Structures are given as structure tokens and as C-alpha cells.
Amino acid sequence: MIIISGQTLRPQDIANWQTEESLLPYLNELIASPVQFDYGSIAELMFEVQLRRNIVQAAKELSGSGAKFATFAKTYGNTAFWRVTPEGALELKYRIPASKAIRDIIENGAFYAFECATAIVVIYYLAVLKTVGNERFDSRFKNIILYDWHYEHLPIYTETGHHFLLGDCLYFKNPDFNPQKAQWRGENVIVLGKDQYFAHGLGILTAEQIIQKLNSLRKKDAVQSAYLLSQATRLDAPALYQIMH
Fold first, then answer.
1. Is the Cα dihedral 125, 127, 132, 135 positive or negative?
2. In what order do the strands lie in the sheet with 7-9?
3. What parts of the chain have a pLDDT lower than 70?
4. Which residues of 92-111 are buried (b: 16+ CB within 10 A; e: fewer)?
5. Contacts 24+ apart (CB under 8 A), 93-100
6. Which pTM does this prediction carry?
7. Which of 235, 21, 45 is nearest to 126 (CA)?
8. pLDDT, tens digit, 9 for 90 and up, residues 13-29
9. Of 86, 153, 85, 84, the residue nearest 112 (C-alpha)
């Protein structure tokens, strides 16, 4: 459900909009969703639609980049752009354009390895860059730290529910994970549509394939299967729109 300045947007209301065809699945999905999304203007709504499309594209690009999965302790990146902190975060070097550093992760993925939560932050930044362009991105983001999205300064929120949308970040929990491989206690993923999810370190898989993979990484005599949590993590697009404009 889409609310713009207090008014519900109906499918017939967008019939005459000059909307890019690639954006229509995202726009229609928001209209049909039982989750309510509130916007102050049509411009805010279209910013969200473009952002979601770009999140999906960014996830696919990261999947094909060659960037590897690593625990925080074993994180590494291209030292021309990033330094690795003691916590395992990638910190943008001084005076490096953020847009160039973020794009380098896709263009030179073999120089990078990081955790799945870090991968979500990379995807979000790349999607924002695609949405707003180099100049606004570099002006707004001068001190990027790529780490767990729980500590990120982008407007990110998580809410409970069973209805998921293209570009959402979901979490597959593995309660009986092997303590020797604690990094597989769960997996953050991006919804790509048609039961396809990008899971950093695993690839683009179906929900069942992700669960099977996590189940293969459980402790001895494990009894509880991995499962998808009923929650979604999202970029707050209206808040981000206000930040970027």
C-alpha cells in the first residue's frame, strides 16, 4: 500500500504515468503490498522504486564480481582505496572519492573478501550511488566504513512481517550452527524475485537451497533446521531522499 501525502495510491492512478518499464514491477509490488509505505511526494516514491531496482542490480553485480566471503577477522580489500580496521571493517581512505571506491569492489572483486552483513552495506551503497550519481554521492559520503549494517549510518530499519518485496534484505537463521564455523549462524540475503536470493559466499540460490546449505554447516547431532526469519530489513527511502536532496 502506497500513501502519498495522506492519499492512497491505486493501480489506476498510475495508468498514465510515464514510467520506465524496468521500474513497473517494483512500483506495482509496492501498491499491492499489505505493508504500508508513506511518502511526502511522488518524487520520494519514485526514488524508492529506483533504489529497489538498483539494490537488485547491485546484488547481481556483487555476485558476479569475484569478491569472496570472509569472517571479520579475515576481511581484506583493495589497499588503494580502503584500509582494514582491527574490527574487520573496510574504511575509506582519506581524499578517495567514495563513488570510485565503491565501484572498485565490483570492478576488482578479487581484491576483496568480507562478511555477509558487510556485503549488504556494499550493495546499499552501490544502489544509492546508481540512484543519485557520482557528484551527489561523493558530496554526501566522505567517510564510509563498510561493516555490519547494524552499525551503519545509512537510514536502515528492520520490521517484522511475512510479506517481502524485491530488494528487501532477509535473514536465514541457523540455530544449530557448528561452533567451529560460527560465521554460518545465519545468512543475510537480498530478494531478487522468483524465489531467487543473493547470499554472499553462497551465490544466487532459492530459499530451499540456502536452507540446505546452512543445514550442511550445523553442529553434530543437530535437530533444528535453518529457517527464514519473519522480518525484512530495508533502506528508509524517504529519509534517504531527504538526506540526498
1. positive
2. 7-9, 2-4, 37-39
3. none
4. beeebbbbebbbbbbebbeb
5. 97/134, 97/138, 98/125, 98/129, 98/137, 98/138, 98/141, 98/142, 98/144, 99/129, 99/134, 99/137, 99/138
6. 0.96
7. 235
8. 888 888 899 999 999 99
9. 84
Contacts of 231 (CB under 8 A, 6+ apart): 158, 159, 160, 161, 170, 171
8-state DSSP, 145: E
Residues 6+ apart with CB under 8 A from 212: none
Q: Phi then psi for 232, rounded to 5 degrees?
A: -135, 140
Grouping H, G, I as helix, E, B as strand and the rest as coil, residue 233 is strand
Question: Which residues pair with residue 91 across a beta bridge?
Answer: 83, 145
Strands 2-4 and 37-39: parallel
3-state secondary structure of 114: strand
Dump pLDDT digits (tens) for 175-216.
999 999 999 999 999 999 999 999 999 999 999 999 999 999
Residue 186: half-sphere exposure toward Cβ, Cα within 13 Å: 12
With vertex at residue 117, the alpha carbon angle to CA 90 and CA 123, rounded to the nearest 5 degrees, is 75
